[in-house]
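// run 5 | inverse folding | seed 20
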């Protein structure tokens, strides 16, 4: 059991109307009020809605401990980039974090490690903490190359100038995202240790925060978050259900509570 605080990040992906977002945040706020701040004393909770919902969600969470994050940003400063969102705009909208290099973007937008690396530079330049996502496909895992693939990906996705104290890495096996399938805790611990070794070897001692993501639910969150080297969780589908997401936050917080 660790006493360090834990990060729980809700990635809403491309979901939500303003009405749905309001209901979701109100559902979380009600649970927070009912269970008291003890439930989140050891967990920092970040909500990452789609861009159009950042401002209304930000207004709603202003009086709560919940923090705000974007799901992507441009590597370029504000300027002629139709359809893109600059890191400075996320900051202005109240974000403290931004997800970068999520596997869905690496797949559908063909984002390379180099593209993610440029976005990390842009995010850190304006004071956003990037949450850099990495993970292997089922084929890579079956081929026995998962550790090699994921460590290469993380090193390729971070610039030499990376500020370790303001960087989060999320290990998300692609085959686990949205499938209900998760690696065993020992596998997660092994991958987190390999990632941390690679980061320390290349960029220095850190401290590096490494999250796990992929089919996290209230029923498995405590066991995963209690794993050695697991500093938090990145939650997709379950973050859209206030009861389920709150169950995850509570389960994680308990793993960080010092026994009386
Ligand atoms: P999931 O998604 O929790 O629905 O598996 C995780 C993610 O893609 O960040």
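// decoded
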């Amino acid at each position: 059991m660790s006493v360090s605080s834990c990060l729980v990040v809700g990635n809403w992906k491309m979901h939500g109307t303003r009405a749905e977002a309001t209901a979701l945040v109100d559902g979380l706020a009600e649970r927070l009020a009912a269970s008291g701040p003890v439930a989140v004393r050891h967990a920092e909770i970040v909500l990452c809605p789609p861009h159009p919902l950042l401002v209304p969600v930000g207004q709603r969470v202003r009086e709560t401990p919940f923090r705000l994050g974007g799901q992507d940003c441009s590597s370029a400063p504000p300027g002629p980039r139709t359809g893109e969102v600059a890191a400075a705009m996320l900051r202005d909208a109240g974000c403290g974090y931004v997800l970068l290099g999520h596997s869905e973007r690496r797949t559908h937008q063909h984002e390379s490690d180099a593209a993610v690396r440029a976005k990390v530079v842009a995010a850190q330049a304006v004071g956003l903490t990037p949450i850099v996502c990495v993970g292997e496909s089922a084929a890579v895992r079956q081929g026995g190359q998962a550790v090699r693939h994921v460590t290469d990906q993380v090193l390729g996705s971070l610039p030499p100038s990376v500020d370790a104290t303001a960087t989060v890495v999320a290990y998300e096996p692609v085959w686990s995202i949205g499938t209900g399938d998760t690696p065993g805790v020992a596998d997660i611990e092994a991958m987190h240790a390999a990632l941390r070794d690679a980061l320390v070897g290349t960029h220095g001692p850190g401290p590096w925060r490494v999250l796990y993501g992929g089919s996290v639910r209230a029923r498995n969150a405590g066991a995963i978050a209690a794993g050695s080297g697991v500093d938090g969780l990145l939650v997709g589908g379950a973050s859209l259900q206030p009861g389920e997401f709150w169950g995850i936050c509570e389960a994680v917080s308990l793993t960080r509570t010092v026994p009386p």
